[in-house]
Amino acid sequence: MKCHIEYVGKLRNGTARYYCTKHKCLASNKSGNKLEECLCNTKEQYENKLDIKNMKIESITIIYENILENVTPKIYINRREFDGIFTYENSILTYKDLSGVMLAKLNNIHLEKIRCKRCKAYHSDNGKFAYIPHITHLCLYCGHFFREKEPNIGSELENILDIPQIKLYKNTTIIKEKCKIEYDMLKGTLLVNEENVNQLIIKENKINIIDFLNKKLEQEF
Fold first, then answer.
1. How far apart are CA 167 and CA 165, in angstroms?
2. Stated pTM of the model
């Protein structure tokens, strides 16, 4: 799917912004110059679409095989791996949107239905915006900023499915060379190397699993 790049205004410092509405991604550099292609590094996934509107969804699982090395997960729906994007009416959902739900539920965040004031599309927050409530949102469909009355966090998937909070046990595990994260969205379970824990020990340092994943995925938006 080729990029569709549009000019979407300027930042406060006067830097121009270009945005790709096909891949939901920025298409300008730090100087404000328009790029030939947007910065999305998973464009090939947009060639494979799965409409989940009329599907009976029994399970959605997100697996980071080793999040120490790679923050792009594998997605399993009804226990079958799917390397693409999900569609539901006018929504387009990528692995980043699913990961955003994981972060929000991990941080015990209430997700809300919010819509872009310009294009009226429903909005999903991910990366650090999935666990830090905020007033100004970047619409991932039209590339424009819009404001809410109160700080909040949005999710399109929350409009579609009943997603529980994540339950963590007070256990600790030692992480050596591999840290596999497996999140079962509909069960609300999160496993680290097949264990339910809330503390990790990495290079003799103890860290809370919530803080660890927040840091690892903060730039995934």
1. 6
2. 0.89
d(CA 216, CA 35) in angstroms, rounded, equals 27
Q: Nearest-5° angle of CA 90, CA 96, CA 98?
A: 75
**Mean pLDDT value of segment 138-149:** 94
- How far is the CA of 158 from the CAs of 10, 51, 61, 62, 80, in angstroms? 31, 16, 15, 16, 22
Task: Name which of 102, 95, 97, 85 is nearest 156 in CA terms.
Answer: 97
15-30 in b/e burial notation, b at 16+ Cβ within 10 A? eebbbbbbbbbbbbee
- Spatial distance between the Cα atoms of 201 and 173, rounded to a whole number of angstroms: 6
Quick: pLDDT tens for 72-94: 999 999 999 999 999 999 899 99
